[in-house]
Known about the structure:
The protein is mostly helical.
Amino acid sequence: RWWSAMRVTYVGLFFNVIFPGSSGGDLARAWLVVKGYPDRRADAFMSVILDRLLGLVAMGLVAAVAVFSNDERFAVLRLPVGLVAAGMICGIGALGSRRLRRWIRLDQWIERMPLGNRIARLDHAIRTLSSHRMQVALAVALSVGNHLGAAMAIATLGTALGADLSVLDYVCIATVVNTLTAVPISLGGLGVGEVLSGTLFAWAGDSYTLGVATSVTFRICLTLLGLAGGLVLLTPGG
């Protein structure tokens, strides 16, 4: 149900504050969903994994469009961002095409991998989504809107602090920073996002210090939102 999904999402935001990486709350979300649906644990767990994968695909596509649409200041990002976006598109094509799967013997490779049974379940779940194209398209569209909304929030904070960058600059910065801070290096991505934001602000022709300040301010907003998410545990049924 919608309210259950909202509750699980906000609990995930709460644990993002204390787990390594900006997506550490996925562990808490997965645990809650699996516990809530003991008769369909595999499907429940895969729903969280697929949510994260669709989010990463949407973010990669937004980053690619923003970086390639911008000027030469972000030219150094075109190759890595382009490779990531191309890899995602090729991966989706490989998973969805029966002919390509047979040609590259994907099923045999999955069987030989460590944790092959679990990877096979994820693969099955992804293929199942191919029969629900409208729902997948809606999920990706909502995810793109989410990433653009985060970029607009960063743009609002940066402008308030005195930065002079374009909306497209902020989209480039936000998508790249949010993608890399998902790597579990520090608690909530603390420090990683600030260095990246400062560096990208400097590449865009503004101040490194303003980039760090904008990132810190945005992080405070996310932390408050995450801590507020912990209150969902106190709601009826929580």
